[in-house]
Amino acid sequence: MAIDLKKFVLRFIDEANGHLQTVKEGAFSLSSGENVDAQIGEMFRAAHTLKGGARMLKLQSIADVTHQLEEILSELRDKKLEPDQNLGTLILQATDDISRQLDQLTASEGTNNLPPADAQLCERLARASRGEMGDEPVQAKVVPAEKPVVALDIAESGLKQAGSVRVKLEKLDDLINILGEVVASHDRLEQQVQSLSNIGPRLAHMDADQLRQEILQFSRQLKEDFQVQHLQMYELYDVATTIRMLPVSMLFEPVSQQVRELAASLNKQVDCRILGGEVEIDRQLIDRLSEPLTHLLRNAVDHGLCEAPERLAAGKSARGTITLTTQQDGRGILLRVEDDGRGLDYPAIRAKAVARGLVSADVVDQLSELECNELIFHPGFSTSKIVTELSGRGVGLDIVRKTIVTDLQGTLQVHSRPGQGTTFIIRLPISLAMMRILQFEQQNHLFGLAAQYVVEVVKCSREEIRDIADRPAIILHNEFIPVISAAEILRINDRHGSQTPTPVATSLLLIIIQNQFGKMAMLVDNLLDERNMMIKPLPKHMQHQALVSGMVLTADNQLVSVLQVPVLMEMAQKQGQPRAAAHKPEVRQNSWHVLIVDDSLNTREIEKNVLEAHGYQVTLAEDGFSGLQKARLTQFDAVLTDVEMPVMDGFSLTKALRAEENYQHIPIIIVTSRAKEEDRRRGIQVGADAYIAKGDFEQDSLIETLKMLLC
């Protein structure tokens, strides 16, 4: 059954305007001659997300313009282009063009009747990304005298568009009803205040008993009215929160369509099942979950699910199945991404861990499945036989864990059954705006912990804390739990300058915290409170603080830092007993000599600049035959080659190099615009170690791939 994309287009419009606002603000600063180094990364990410959403919804004209825009921002981010005012003005013209297309989509209520992209604009953007714009002035719609006005218009437009939301009528009715009750309750409290003020003139005519009765009656009535308003305020918050809630199908349906298209491109048959799509979650969660969910699904299609012949040989149906399940439990939202594929390849994971120096060969067989599951989230880790733009570079699952655990205050677990499949289990809070926070005090500093990470709070004597494996620990419920000092881990100094003052209390207070990898007991001074609290995000200049996820405000207007428990536990583990780790070989970058073979001068120079910026020695060749001759004259440590070249193509070059005795084990990376599955297969057959499509070329991916293959 075909999916009606119109409702997703309408949601995309709101999101796109938000991303476009980020690009516009940076472009205006750039066109004004301001320094935008700090904004380029955000602009690039916004353009990249905008392009991906447009492509998914088949909005090709928006995708074409945004792609060229992304190319310019990528070059600016990598310092290959010098920022100037003309470039900023050109980017503003591109954002204006995209805005007009979004307006047209809005007017058509999501119907895609967009004309083809402006070819002249795309060409100007493409030339600019190659540095060919020079000093040629761009006819700007924004003249210098109008800068303040334009800046205001952009800001106001962005707020209106990004802040819009579609609300069901019954939700608005509920909100209005509860607001009416709150107003009535406020009127009653106002009457109580008036009654209190009326007591004053009557005091001279009242005896003690009468006064006592008046005060008691006033106190009871005030308490009742206050309790009623307290309940109404929480009900008001709950109703207001539901306005931001959207069914999770809004997230699942587009990505499930992407899964089917991806599977078809890989010659695999895949069904994507959605269970619990009617469950509603906070829109903030939906927006933030899109990227990690896409990574998980791509991983499932590319790694987990095999092709029909292999499945039939294993006694399975020819069609693989990926199941997306959502349900609510007592502590939040539970998401499951499950495939019925081959499961995790633990022997391959162990072998790759040894090859990358993450684990020594003599202990690798002792790794548990849980420890092997943890390895797949290591940056750059992949067991893929060949590197493509979909998998094998290890740049996906680490992003998934960061987003789920660090950004969304959730947990991520992996369960795998060899030959049966793999399941990723994600637990998330119901809302990112309101969370249950446990507050504690350490040397007059206030801190908070998300209650979902807190197992229990216990008191113990000093004698109960003992040294176990050279670090303090307690035995609780027949379990060894390491003990950390909040003062030490948070580096809080007392007035005398020591980090961990000697407590005088006879008993110690421990907060037991837990994530999917274990438990820890944190020693604190005092426990203050636990309640639902509104989370305030950190200001921009503090958002690099990984240990603090946000702030809450106490009743007496004190700010409390909410700590990231996974980061806190990671810091404690590093600070505790060091584990014996295998020596990780360092890439001797300055001694690696790489041969680049490509008939495009521009491509050769780009790749050369990227590698030389990271300390590699580079030799260039313009075709396969020239590359083969140079390889026979000089021993290279790695080879990068295109496919389509005159005289000798890249496949022939790779096959010829593998026939040479001294190139049988040298890394060969194919970097090409040919992204079809049969081309990748041929790359494997002729002996390539990695296959990267030029359309998805990123310098970080290339460098990480090269490091991985050379280590």
**Gross morphology:** globular
Strand arrangement within the widest β-sheet reads 10-14-15-13-12-11
Discrete helix count: 21
Which homologous superfamily in CATH is the superfamily of the largest domain? Histidine kinase-like ATPase, C-terminal domain
* Arithmetic mean pLDDT: 78
Radius of gyration over all CA atoms, rounded: 30 Å
- The share of residues in extended strands comes to 15-25%
Largest sheet: 6 strands, mixed
Tally of domains: 5
Helicity range: 40-55%
Strand elements, count? 23
Which residues form runs of ≥5 with pLDDT under 50? 138-163, 495-503, 577-589
- Architecture (CATH level 2) name of the largest domain: 2-Layer Sandwich
Global structural class: alpha/beta
